[in-house]
Design a protein that fits this description.
The complex is a heterodimer. In chain A, 63% of the residues lie in helices and 0% in strands. Chain A is mostly helical. Chain B is 24% helix and 36% strand. Chain B has helices at residues 42-50, 92-102, 107-121, 136-148, 166-183, 194-200, 218-223, 228-233, 280-284; strands spanning 2-13, 16-27, 31-35, 57-62, 65-66, 77-80, 154-158, 186-191, 203-208, 211-216, 240-248, 253-257, 260-263, 287-293, 298-302, 310-319, 323-330, 333-341, 351-356, 362-365, 371-374. The longest helix of chain B is centred in the middle third of the chain and has 18 residues, at 166-183. Chain B is of the alpha+beta class. The radius of gyration of chain B is 25 Å and the shape is elongated. Classes of the chains: A mainly alpha, B alpha+beta. The A-B interface holds A 192, 194-195, 197-204, 208, 212-213, 216-217, 219, 297-302 and B 47, 50-52, 71-73, 77-79, 81-89, 98-99, 102-103, 130-134, 136, 139, 146, 150, 163. Bound molecules: adenosine-5'-triphosphate and magnesium ion (MG).
Chain lengths: 302, 380
């Protein structure tokens, strides 16, 4: 019955944007000037649309006929929704295998990066050893090297090891993320040292403190890093393309790209595969988002 | 029996000396309060005893053995932190049992101890909550419980009550005192609140600038403060002070300053003569001192009364119900605060006389701040 209106005098206004427990940082909910609030909402919606537009377009295109894509004047909505595109696209190549490969690759990368970033980040944040800050700076400086530059050396390395076209070949070079180490270090530094002191008095050793006290508290950072690492690995095209050869080792992204053949481009198929490829990321985000929304979980420490 | 002994224990952070080498002995089963203003090094001393701060010099002995090389876990101490430092991701039950689990205590025993502690502290219904779902007072109890279940030989408290409101603070103070009676463990309680120190401590060590200024029973510290710092830090309202000189006039010592002439007994070392007919040269030998008197040792009398030492103006009257705190000021300096019966009729703007109990007037060296003694009374 009653629809939400932006101009409504406060009580009925939309609030919170669906984020549990997180008040939007828009000037005072109750007292703020209505036009200002409407403006903020308009801006937010505009930004959201801008972000969503390519995805919507991708989804809509995936349901079109191959020629319909090029019709003039261009059309937004497909004449009839051709869901058979999905079947076609996913059976045109062994996508089941591709998904498995992507999943194995991404899982290795995520676990590897979580492990190395958590331990190294903790060491840089908490352990005292000589040259710690300098070593950390050295780590950071590698972030200035573009990934493309190290592509060939990395390939040569795995080639020497005979790992081309294997899981360990594509995954082994991606297990350390300097950005992840940085993120974890910053996060561990916000964990009050008194907590660790308390654990020491309680009888916990360094590993136990790391495992039972510091790491659980870093869950939001771990979730963030994990999600980003997953997305990064999932959408990585160049490296798997370079490091794998056989159809058996292809990842989803490479599969999608191969719809873009030399002689023809099947846009609807490519888009259908693309939509399917985005789904795992969406699911993962749904699972991890509560950590983003809640952010630092230090309330209750005092 | 010795509970905790510190000898020459000191700490410096770079160039900053947080704690000057100090000696302190806490008897087994004693509750000692470490009292001092913010930044005086209280937490640092406590952390060095616990073993989570490396001392720069000196030794820590617990229960008769030296523990400098012993890990915190092996010192048989438990600490309640200023910030409570509860593990936010664990339930109250897990918080309480963490230390026991680390020590591989059998689970029935853990269960029993957790029930015991939570029973005493009234945490039974909160065991499955997280610290974030507790009030400040409840968190404080959990922090206390976490120390209790370990049944350590030494408890270290770092201002555990400073985040609580006045009523809760008084309540928890009683609970800690009761806990001390019940467990008979050695306790070192750090606070900057002198009321807390006086009401809780069997002995109080006053810390300032990283040095122990005085260590004694609350009454000793209050009645015979070692120096001006202790005298003004301990007691609310604080000690009233006036600067002047100390000499003698034949009949005994005499304090002159701020228009006050206070004649005392012949107990203090006062070189110069201050007799009225003496010359300036003798006066110059008189010793510069600070006299101090507690608010309850001054009596308000009528202005110009024979017993009045000096007249003053009433600046403000605080009616606390049980008593009045009368703020007075005048030629002698001030403002001073005088405790008076709530029956007394006095209002701002009145002129009153101040009668000082000379046997309760403390005299401090103006340079070192050391207490020389009390003026004493002449009648005897
Ligand atoms: N890690 C540190 N590095 C440098 N200086 C420090 C460090 N820890 C403490 N200090 C200094 O040592 C002095 C004593 O600190 P401490 O924490 O023991 O004070 P405190 O008496 O507990 O104060 P508060 O009542 O505010 O807790 C302070 O001057 C403080 O600045
Ligand atoms: Mg402190």
């Amino acid at each position: 019955m009653s629809r939400v209106r932006f101009s409504a005098g406060g009580a009925g206004g939309p609030r919170g944007g669906g984020l549990r427990g997180a008040d939007p940082p828009l000037g005072g909910r109750r007292t703020g000037a209505v036009p200002l609030r409407a403006l903020a909402w308009a801006a937010t919606i505009l930004a959201a649309l801008t972000m969503a537009a390519p995805f919507l377009w991708m989804a809509l295109t995936s349901l079109m006929g191959q020629l319909e894509v090029f019709s003039y004047p261009p059309r937004l909505l497909p004449e009839t929704a051709r869901f058979e595109n999905y079947v076609g696209a996913l059976t045109a190549q062994p996508f089941g295998r591709f998904f498995l490969n992507s999943l194995v690759f991404a899982t290795c990368v995520v676990s590897g990066q979580l492990l190395t970033a958590a331990t190294a980040g903790y060491a840089f944040a908490r352990l005292e050893f000589r040259g710690r800050e300098r070593l950390f700076l050295l780590f950071l400086s590698t972030m200035m090297v573009p990934t493309v530059v190290v592509l060939i050396p990395r390939f040569l390395m795995i080639d020497r090891l005979g790992w081309v076209d294997t899981y360990q070949g594509i995954a082994s070079t991606e297990l350390v993320s300097v950005w992840g180490i940085f993120l974890m270090r910053q996060y561990f530094r916000t964990v009050p040292t008194e907590l660790e002191d308390a654990a020491r008095i309680d009888g916990a050793g360094p590993w136990r403190i790391f495992w039972s006290v510091s790491l659980p508290l870093a869950r939001p950072a771990l979730a963030t890093l994990g999600l980003f690492a997953f997305i990064d690995a999932w959408k990585n095209l160049l490296w798997p393309l370079l490091a794998t050869r056989s159809m058996d080792m292809r990842v989803v992204e490479v599969g999608i790209a191969s719809f873009h053949g030399t002689y023809e481009v099947n846009w609807p198929y490519q888009m259908a595969a693309g939509v399917t490829a985005v789904l795992p990321i969406l699911v993962l985000f749904l699972f991890t988002q509560r950590y983003f929304v809640r952010g630092i979980q230090m309330e209750g420490f005092r | 029996m010795v509970g905790v002994r510190l000898s020459g224990l000191g700490k410096r952070f770079g160039d900053v000396v947080a704690v000057h080498p100090l000696d302190l002995e806490v008897g087994r089963g004693e509750l000692l309060v470490l009292l001092g203003p913010s930044g005086c090094g209280k937490s640092t001393v406590l952390r060095m005893i616990a073993g989570i701060e490396e001392p720069s010099c000196g030794e820590v002995h617990i229960g008769g053995s030296r523990v400098d090389d012993v890990e915190p876990a092996g010192r048989d101490v438990a600490m309640v932190f200023q910030s409570y430092a509860l593990y936010p991701h664990m339930t109250v039950r897990q918080n309480l049992s963490f230390g026991l689990r680390m020590r591989r205590t059998p689970s029935e025993e853990i269960e029993r101890k957790v029930r015991w502690a939570s029973g005493i502290l009234g945490l039974d219904t909160l065991l499955d909550r997280r610290p974030g779902q507790l009030s400040g007072g409840q968190r404080q109890r959990v922090a206390l419980g976490r120390a209790m279940v370990r049944e350590p030989s030494v408890f270290l408290f770092d201002e555990p009550l400073s985040n609580l409101d006045a009523r809760l603070r008084a309540e928890m103070r009683d609970e800690i005192a009761a806990l001390h009676r019940r467990l008979g463990a050695t306790m070192i309680f750090v606070t900057h609140d002198q009321v807390e120190a006086m009401s809780l401590g069997q002995r109080v060590a006053v810390l300032e600038g990283g040095t122990i200024q005085q260590c004694g029973t609350p009454l000793e510290v209050y009645r015979e403060p070692a120096n001006l710092f202790v005298a003004t830090f301990v007691g609310t309202p604080p000690l009233n002070t006036v600067e002047g000189v100390l000499g003698h006039d034949g009949g005994g010592v005499v304090f002159l300053g701020g228009g006050l002439t206070l004649a005392g007994a012949d107990a203090l070392d006062a070189p110069g003569s201050l007799a009225p007919d003496d010359d300036a040269e003798a006066d110059a030998q008189a010793r510069p001192v600070v006299a101090g008197i507690r608010p309850e040792d001054v009596t308000l009398v009528g202005a110009g009364a024979a017993t009045a030492h000096v007249d003053a103006d009433v600046l403000r009257v605080e009616a606390l119900g049980s008593e009045l705190l009368v703020h007075v000021g005048g030629a002698y300096g001030g403002p001073w605060i005088v405790r008076a019966s709530s029956d007394l009729e006095v209002a701002a703007g009145d002129r009153v006389g101040l009668e000082l109990a000379t046997e309760r007037v403390h005299v401090f060296d103006a340079v070192t701040g050391r207490r020389l003694g009390t003026l004493g009374s002449r009648e005897a």
